[in-house]
Every structure is written in C-alpha cells, then in structure tokens.
Design a protein that fits this description.
The chain has helices at 20-27, 36-43, 52-56, 60-65, 69-85, 107-124, 141-154, 177-185, 200-209, 224-232, 241-246, 258-263, 282-293, 297-310, 315-326; strands at 4-10, 88-95, 128-136, 159-165, 192-194, 214-216, 237-239, 268-270. β2, α6 and β3 form a beta-alpha-beta unit. The mean pLDDT is 96. It has one domain (4-321): TIM Barrel, CATH 3.20.20.140. It is an alpha/beta fold and 327 residues long. Strands 1-2-3-4 form a four-stranded parallel beta sheet, with helices on both faces. α5 runs parallel beside α6 (107-124). Bound molecules: zinc ion. Residues 8, 10, 165, 193, 215, 273 line the site of zinc ion (ZN).
Length: 327
C-alpha cells in the first residue's frame, strides 16, 4: 500500500460513517433518521453541491455529536483507525475546541478528551498524528483567545499549532491582528486558512501575522509576487481540490490552479479538508490531481515530500517519514 500524509483534515467534517450510530448512542443525541441510508444525506454533501449553505449545513450533525468527552475521544480514535487503514502514516487533525462546549465542557476538557483519542489511536494503529486547534472567524474573540491558551497548554503534548478557520469572505483575515499578536506573545505557532474564499491580500495578511503554512491559498495564483514569495520562503500551501470545487470557489477540477501553483515552484501539499462531507480520501485526491493534470510519478512524490517538510515535526521525525514514503 502507498503511504500518504494529510495536513488539512477537519475532525467534524471527517467523522467515519460507521462511527455515527455509536457516537449518537454514547452522546445521547437524537439522530434525524433511523437508518444509515437515510443519515448519509445529512453528513455527505452532493458532489455538485448547490451552494455553500448546503455544504455548511453538513457540519451541524457532526458538531452536535461531538459535545461530550467520550464522543470526542471516540471520534479522534475512529478517524485514526480509518485513515491509517487507507495508508495515511501522518496526519494533523484539526477542530475548533470552542465549538464543542455547548453541553458545558471547557476547551481544556475538550482538548484533553480529543488527546485521549489521539494517544490511544497512535498507540494502536500504524500512524503518527497531532492535533491543530482552530479559532473560528466570527466567533466571540474571548473564545478564540482561550483556544490560543489551550493550544499553548498542550503544545508538544499532541497539539502542534493553532489555526483560523471559517467564512473568510465574511470575516476578513485583517480583523484577526489582535488574536495573532496574542498568539505570538504566547509563542504559539499558527497556520491560517487564507486565499480560499478571498484574494491574495488575505494570504499576504496571514504571512504578515506570521503564519507558518497557508490553508488552501489557491488565490495566490493571481499574484506573481506572492507566488515568488511562497516559493522563495518555502511556505507550504495546504491544497484541497475536491473541497474547493464543491464549495464553488473553483468551477471544476480542471480549472483548479493546483498545477499552476506546482509549476510556479510553490511547496504544494494535497489534503482532504473534510473526508466525509466531500466523500474523499487523500489517496483519492492524489489520484484526481495526477489524472486531471497528467503529473508524473516524480511530481506526485515531490508533493508527498512537501507534506513531510511542511509537517510540525522534528528533522529526525521527518527523515523517518520520508524513508517510509520512499520505500
Ligand atoms: Zn479547512
């Protein structure tokens, strides 16, 4: 089996379908349907999604299912089981701790529960993994600041960095200067979703704040100077092709700028974003990109190695991952 890396994978959008009934039972959550067949449309978006709203409402049920410690632990554990069986040997799994406090958990309790699932999973399955804590655009600023503090508390103990996710077109990156200034005072490394639903200026702002990687960043393609900057400074983009097409940022796969970004020498990585909602896997994303753009095996291997290079790991850990990928 081929080995893969996934650096951009949201827990709530990637709940394994075979864990839904157990999560509902464990969390005592009433499901909107009784059979898996009827539940699937609540969890998986149509490949030709009508609009962003249709896509976003697929997060409602997963978020409702992830409001207790037992459910959070199980979800992370089951996701690791699923992706390791697909050949993923390293994954950075992200989620927003602040979105899981509806039933009274604190963000620290949420993170501790997710970490229990992580540590159980990596002990049992042939995979290495860390968590990323997402702040949310549009969330209460104090909730986001608490996410920064929780990230700091668990940094190096299974959590590798902080992120900013959510509606980029409604809540511009520029509005989060204070949050990232705060993260810098805490010495919390961060990445930012930028250039997904807003133009290159959003990516420039994320870089000015100090983002180590850019989530998506596909609109960088519109700015030659930015492409040059990303290439020169080895700033990786976490590209998720199926997701971009599904939310209608890109009309169809062959219009996706991934090949242009690779051509420009930007360190591109390929990832899933939301495996369940988008009905994809990282192997599926690699296959899709290679087939659509006619990339060589050597180019695909380069993308995998970009993923190793971009990971929040030590040089020694990266060396080990590279060896696994190249063998
Ligand atoms: Zn994302």
């Amino acid at each position: 089996m081929k080995h893969y890396i996934d650096l951009h994978l949201h827990l709530d959008g990637s709940l394994p379908l075979n864990s839904i009934l157990r999560l509902a039972e464990l969390g005592e959550v009433a499901l909107p349907a009784d059979t898996m067949e009827e539940l699937v449309p609540h969890l998986v978006a149509d490949p030709d999604c009508k609009d962003l709203a249709e896509f976003l409402n697929k997060f409602d049920l997963p978020i409702a299912l992830l409001q207790t410690e037992a459910c959070l632990e199980l979800a992370v554990y089951e996701l690791l089981r699923t992706i390791s069986a697909q050949g993923v040997i390293y994954a950075e799994i992200r989620y927003a701790p602040g979105a899981h406090c509806r039933r009274g958990l604190t963000q620290t309790q949420v993170m501790e529960a997710a970490l229990r699932g992580l540590h159980r999973g990596i002990a049992e399955f042939p995979i290495k993994s860390q968590l990323i804590a997402c702040c949310m655009r549009g969330a209460d600023p104090e909730v986001n600041r608490e996410t920064a503090r929780v990230t700091q508390k668990f940094l190096g103990k299974g959590v590798c960095c902080m992120d900013l996710a959510g509606a980029e077109s409604l809540f511009p990156t520029e509005d989060y200067a204070d949050l990232f200034a705060y993260a810098r005072t805490l010495d919390v490394p961060f990445i930012i979703h930028a250039g997904e639903a807003a133009g290159p200026a959003s990516v420039w702002t994320a870089l000015k704040f100090g983002a180590k990687r850019i989530g998506h960043g596909i609109y960088s393609v519109k700015d030659k100077t930015l492409l040059e900057h990303l290439r020169e400074h080895h700033i990786p983009l976490e590209v998720c092709v199926t997701s971009n097409v599904q939310i209608k940022e890109i009309a169809c796969v062959k219009d996706h700028p991934v090949a242009q970004l690779i051509e420009a020498g930007v360190p591109v990585t390929l990832n899933t974003d939301n495996m369940t909602i988008s009905g994809t896997s990282v192997a599926g994303e690699f296959e899709l990109v290679q087939r659509t753009f006619g990339l060589s095996d050597a180019q695909m291997e380069r993308i995998l190695l970009n993923g190793v290079e971009a990971a929040f790991l030590t040089e020694k850990e990266k060396e080990k991952l590279s060896e696994q990928i190249l063998n």
